[in-house]
Amino acid sequence: MYTSETILEVRYYETDLMGIVHHSNYIRYFEWGRHVALVELGLPTQEIEKRGIMMPVIRTECNYKKPAKQGDKLRIVTSVKEMPKVKLVIDTSIYNEEDDLVCNGSVTLGFIHSSSRKPTRTPDFITSLFNQFFTNNI
User: Fold this and answer.
1) Torsion-angle region of 62 (φ positive above 0: left; ψ -120 to 50: alpha; else: beta)
2) Tell me, what's the pLDDT at 138?
3) Which domains, from first to last, does the chain contain?
4) Positions of the chain with pLDDT lower than 50, given as ranges
């Protein structure tokens, strides 16, 4: 399993008239966690795209547990629990400063060739990156 963590402070423009984070922003927080994780792995999205691969979102799921408010510092925990084969499932849990679960969910990404937009299996350069986290379970 691969796990990454980052902190994000809720900004005013992400809140609604009730002063809580608008539900749509949690998917953006998931994306920020995914971005940080890929950068930490040495493979930012720009590099993946330079190699001719795009990763479209094919599914999202978000379970809201507790509201977050402007100024809250949220801990975003991003995990890959299964070796990607034809899709990459990224689980995310977001916690507030009291370590209460604010929300959790997942984003499923597919792989397509940039030039043809046709689906493909997980490219070897991505598989080899994740091998270190999944090969010792044999």
Assistant:
1) beta
2) 46
3) 2-137 (3.10.129.10)
4) 138
